[in-house]
Amino acid sequence: MIKVDQLRKNFGSIVAVDGISFEVKPGEVLGFLGPNGAGKSTTMKILTCFLAPDSGRAEVAGCDIEKDPVGVRQRVGYVPEHAPLYDDMTVHGFLSFVGDVRGMGGSNLRDAIDRVVSSCAIEKVVHRRIETLSKGFKRRVGLAQAFLHDPSTLILDEPTDGLDPNQKFEVRELIKKMGKQKVIVISTHILEEVDAVCSRAIIIAKGRVLADGTPAELTQRGGGKLEAYFRKITTAAEQQESAA
Predict the structure, then answer these.
(1) Which domains does the chain have, with CATH numbers?
(2) Which end of the chain has fewer CB within 10 Å, C or N?
(3) Element (H, E) at 205
(4) Per-position b or e across 15-43, b if 16+ CB within 10 A of its CB
(5) Rounded distance, CA 88 to CA 126, Å?
(6) How do residues 64-117 score in pLDDT, each as one tens digit?
């Protein structure tokens, strides 16, 4: 479970996260929506212990992000917006390295690599150097390393960025399958992603939560169009900020 209570983060005079609160339970796939600069990636970096909040608190998989960051990292699979990969490694070598870092070894690691190679459909590139891969395959390798240790919680920042339509379909089906048992948060500004994989969605802008509901509920508020509702409330937040 993820519990977030009044998280705040500033970068100088810029308020990136402004008192965000929400919870995500096992079996939920939460779409974290907002325009560019809304605070999505900053919130995810806080939840995965890459950034410390200025105030507020959060628990991820039962671990406090400030008191037990190691516990959080052990239980979370994270795909940042620009997932770092080692270009001079092969895909298999990189996944083996990630497994070693996570304390995996022997048959457990071999089985885990086989599992994620199959589920992320990277069999044909598993022995190639990462620097030779297309953007889409690199994205899938980034997903594979996040799934490797079978974490209880997945935090995915733009998980289908750079994938072609067929690859997007495969990744979305994988997320839906895993979402039946895990806690999953997906950051995206692609509204079709919400209908495709999410059981719930939060819309944020200017670091604040503007709406929280099922995709059907949010779509209904927009008169049958999620995009219309998204534009209405995020534009209003921008205008309010400009007038202040």
Answers:
(1) 11-222+236-243 (3.40.50.300)
(2) C
(3) strand 200-205
(4) bbbbebebebeeebbbbbbbbeebbbbbb
(5) 13
(6) 999 999 999 999 999 987 778 999 999 999 999 999 999 999 999 999 999 999
Q: DSSP letters of 16-82?
A: EEEEEEEEE-TT-EEEEE--TTSSHHHHHHHHTTSS--SEEEEEETTEETTT-HHHHHHHEEEE-TT
For 162, residues 6+ apart whose C-beta sits below 8 A from its C-beta are 135, 136, 138, 139
Task: Read off the amino acid at residue 185.
Answer: V
Q: Cα separation of 46 and 56, whole Å?
A: 11
Q: Give 228-237 pLDDT, tens digit per residue.
A: 999 999 988 7
Nearest in space to 155 (alpha carbons), one of 178, 135, 130: 178
Angle in degrees, 0-180, between the axes of helices 135-147 and 106-119, rounded to the nearest 10: 140
